[in-house]
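User: Quick sanity check before I run a bigger batch. Here is a single chain. Can you write out its predicted 3D structure?
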Amino acid sequence: MLPLATILHPTDFSENSEFAFRVACALARDYNARLVLLHVVPPPMVIYSGGPVPAETWPSIEEVQEKLRELEKQAHHVRVESQVLEGDPVEMILRAAEETRSDVIVMGTHGRSGLGRLLLGSVAESVIRKAPCPVLSAKSLPARQKAIEEEEVKTEASAAANA
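Assistant: Done. Predicted structure follows.
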């Protein structure tokens, strides 16, 4: 069995990160491991297209810390610590993995493909390729797809009961 003492969970507070957080908490409980929550605030970007286009605004450090505290409260029976770093998300995740001596990184992925992946890249993919430890990438189903699948299960159960 792979010994897990420290689990790193980078989060962007998305639905996929929330699912990965639940997976990270379960692993931390099962292995009595320390869970390190990490949020990276990217550097501001200015795009030029015939003139500067305003950069995307990111939450303040205080807002991010509050969101991390809320996650900590949800991590029942788990030793948790939080970090907020500023910089390139991939570089900061890799640095945090090294500095915390993480045994595994558990992170969500948005599952982009095609043009979206080409333009935006994939933080998860880059981390997987460069990480100093195993990476568990978790993608949850979108809420709409979940609802459709649940309805299909109910319909199938109803049809089976009536047969």
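The helical segments are 15-31, 61-74, 89-99, 114-120, 123-130, 143-162.

User: Great, the batch can go ahead then.
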